[in-house]
Automatic annotation (TrEMBL):
<dbReference type="Pfam" id="PF16166">
    <property type="entry name" value="TIC20"/>
</dbReference>
<dbReference type="InterPro" id="IPR005691">
    <property type="entry name" value="Tic20"/>
</dbReference>
<feature type="transmembrane region" description="Helical">
    <location>
        <begin position="12"/>
        <end position="37"/>
    </location>
</feature>
<comment type="similarity">
    <text>Belongs to the Tic20 family.</text>
</comment>
<feature type="transmembrane region" description="Helical">
    <location>
        <begin position="90"/>
        <end position="110"/>
    </location>
</feature>
<keyword id="KW-0812">Transmembrane</keyword>
<feature type="transmembrane region" description="Helical">
    <location>
        <begin position="57"/>
        <end position="78"/>
    </location>
</feature>
<keyword id="KW-1133">Transmembrane helix</keyword>
<keyword id="KW-0472">Membrane</keyword>
<dbReference type="GO" id="GO:0016020">
    <property type="term" value="C:membrane"/>
</dbReference>
<feature type="transmembrane region" description="Helical">
    <location>
        <begin position="122"/>
        <end position="144"/>
    </location>
</feature>
<protein>
    <submittedName>
        <fullName>Uncharacterized protein</fullName>
    </submittedName>
</protein>
């Protein structure tokens, strides 16, 4: 655990809120497939989607450019701003990196794997379930750690976030 200074309650709230972005990304990525296939995770996904539903319309609105706009806004206005506390900048960068990993999975699925496996195949279902569970678990872990004022340490992602966030 790394201490770069104390974190106020408002810092903790903002650090927690940023982890809604990976949840929005994963719902948009695997949500329709898991619901359509009747996955055993569909009830869990429904529990996640219900409170996020107002944000989903905004996030995927504007012709699909809102995630890109949010990415650039967070990176330029928060991560690269030295006046923002390190705790918030680190958590924003970590959430952005999780979103980038989900985008890479989406690209690999759309251009490589979707031509090999049907979305209803057991391999695709296992892959989608694993991506959903991993993202949900990482997001919940990071939200709890941020709420406690601790830096959430995810092995490779945290190291990359530390290299991107200046002191």
């Amino acid at each position: 655990m790394t201490w770069r200074g104390s974190s106020s309650p408002t810092d903790r709230i903002f650090a927690c809120l940023v982890y809604l972005l990976p949840l929005l990304d994963v719902v948009g990525l695997v949500g329709a497939v898991l619901f359509a296939s009747g996955s055993f995770l569909a009830p869990v996904l429904a529990i996640v989607v219900l409170p996020l539903s107002p944000l989903l319309g905004i996030y995927y609105g504007f012709g699909g450019f809102m995630p890109l706009i949010i990415f650039f806004a967070l990176y330029m206005l928060v991560v690269r701003n030295d006046r923002v506390p390190h705790f918030i900048r680190f958590n924003v960068m970590q959430a952005i990196l999780i979103g980038i990993l989900l985008s890479l999975f989406s690209i690999i699925w759309n251009y490589v794997l979707s031509s090999i496996f049907l979305p209803t195949s057991i391999v695709a279902q296992t892959l989608f379930n694993s991506v959903f569970l991993a993202t949900l678990g990482v997001s919940i872990y990071c939200i709890f750690q941020s709420a406690l004022g601790r830096y959430a340490e995810i092995p490779t992602i945290s190291e990359a976030a530390y290299t991107q966030v200046r002191y």
